[in-house]
Write a structure and sequence with these properties.
The chain is α/β, with parallel strands linked by helices. It folds into two domains: about 140 residues, NAD(P)-binding Rossmann-like Domain (Rossmann fold, 3-Layer(aba) Sandwich), CATH 3.40.50; about 160 residues, Dihydrodipicolinate Reductase, domain 2. It is built from eight helices and 14 strands. Strands 8-9-10-7-11-12-13-14 form an eight-stranded mixed β-sheet. A six-stranded parallel β-sheet has the order 3-2-1-4-5-6, sandwiched between helices. α3 packs parallel to α4. It is globular.
Length: about 325
């Protein structure tokens, strides 16, 4: 039975560019949600998206009616201003990654959320990739992690380096997999290729217990690749975020491997799994309804931002 209108959460999307469009698309059909407004500084774009999904449209977020929650999908430099204003008006807020352009702005969002007693979730969407979901619990003792997130030059506006644009996804995941291990050393190199900001960055992270993560992010590659490989004492795991699949090789018994017959091999693909962005937004809605923390919240997002900024600073010197 469809929920009654009175039981539905009202939602707004602030910024309906490439990604905001998809937020509006999903929220217009998400169970228990009513898309109440879209807003964009480009009035023609707000009108186009609003009419497409049957929602009132506005050229300014300040003009939207009060809503239960809002998605902030504006340029990163405007995250803090938009999020704090929405929180002050009493809305829960979903913020696309990175949470803010700098740590000072992130702390403003944190204070506003605590003062308003409202929920904030940050859009680190790869946490909701079905391949990672399926094998996350198998990663218990990583010794070496290798990550490649490569893409062709994007046809969208960029106000941040590749470290904050896309590498931050993998920094969040690596921190998640480290399960509290202390980060001991960071090294990074990078280059500006097509923009005035870093377009390719490689970072080497050393954690307690002699665990190393080697992460490469590029937005100037010929082909797209989004993979993480995890090496453990008894297993090897490869997750393909782009194709939503994984490969898992695990020794059947301890000791030296004598042949491939001594391996358990598991390969899975999830072509028909729920769209990660829909799963992510549904998680936020459920957290609002249940009164529980969202994943990832401000603390995890700030940790990823802090590390990305550190890497960006080091890579800029190379």
């Amino acid at each position: 039975m469809a929920p009654r209108m009175a039981d539905m959460l009202s939602a707004a999307v602030i910024g309906v560019g490439h990604l905001g469009f998809h937020h509006a698309r999903i929220l217009s059909s998400l169970e228990g949600v009513r898309l109440a407004a879209v807003a964009d500084l480009r009035a023609d774009r707000a009108k186009e998206v609003g009419e497409k999904f049957g929602a009132p449209f506005f050229a300014s977020a300040a003009d939207i009616p009060p809503v239960d929650f809002a998605v902030v999908s504006v340029p990163t430099s405007a995250h803090s201003e938009a999020a704090t204003a929405l929180l002050a008006r009493g809305s829960h807020v979903f913020i696309e990654k990175p949470i803010a352009l700098n740590l000072a702005d992130a702390r403003k969002i944190d204070r506003a959320a605590r003062n308003a007693k409202k929920l904030v979730q940050v859009g680190h969407i790869e946490r909701f990739n079905p391949a990672l979901f399926a094998v996350r619990d198998r990663i218990a003792d990583p010794r070496f992690i290798e990550v490649h997130r490569l893409s062709p030059f994007p046809e969208r506006a960029m106000d941040v380096s590749v470290a904050l644009d896309v590498m931050i996804h993998d920094l969040d995941i690596v921190q998640l997999l480290m399960k509290g291990r202390k980060l001991k050393k960071v090294a990074a190199v990078g280059a500006k290729v097509l923009t005035d900001r870093l377009d390719i960055v490689n970072a080497r992270l050393e954690y307690s217990g002699n665990v190393v993560a080697n992460i490469t992010a590029s937005r100037v590659s010929m082909e797209a690749m989004r993979k993480i490989r995890v090496f453990q004492p008894d297993s090897y795991l490869s997750i393909d975020f782009k194709n939503r699949s994984y490969e898992w090789y695990c020794k059947k018994t301890p000791g030296t491997l004598k042949s491939l017959l001594d391996l358990d091999i598991d390969r899975q693909e999830f072509p028909d799994a729920e769209e990660p962005l829909r799963k992510e937004l549904r998680h936020f809605v459920n957290c609002i309804r249940d009164g529980r923390p969202a994943e990832p919240g401000i603390r995890e997002a700030v940790a990823a931002l802090s590390l990305a900024l550190r890497i960006e600073k080091l890579a800029s010197k190379s």
